[in-house]
Amino acid sequence: MTAPAASPLTEDHLARLVQVFYERARAHPGLGPLFNTAVADWEHHLGIVQDFWSHALLGTQRYTSHPYPVHLGLPIRREHFGQWLDLFRPAALETLPGDAAARAIAQAELMAASFRAGLFPFDPLHAP
Q1: What is the pTM of this model?
Q2: Which InterPro entries match (predicted)?
Q3: Higher model confidence: residue 38 or residue 126?
Q4: Which of 36, 55, 114, 119 has its CA 20 to 30 A from that of 5?
């Protein structure tokens, strides 16, 4: 017997990921104030984030920028990286097909480590 084929990743999956993650992030005691202060137009922001994940996971060309510079002026603290991942991982597992969830989580972990290294270059090297 062969295992059933994994369902293909769709834009609907990505829209749901972004929605679920940001619902949780906006309500989070550590991340909520940061997001709710930094984002003025949530519909626009969610669209940009979905475009990012569409580019990262589906190879679309809707997102052609780089997310790091946008975050440079924000009051991000070290603990935000772990909090972000603690919300992102279950959101990805709940909303994306298995292999896509694993790829999204790996991408998020890489981004968190890269952003943290850029924002806090003198911190010891360890996972966010």
Answers
A1: 0.89
A2: Globin-like_sf, Globin/Proto
A3: 38
A4: 55
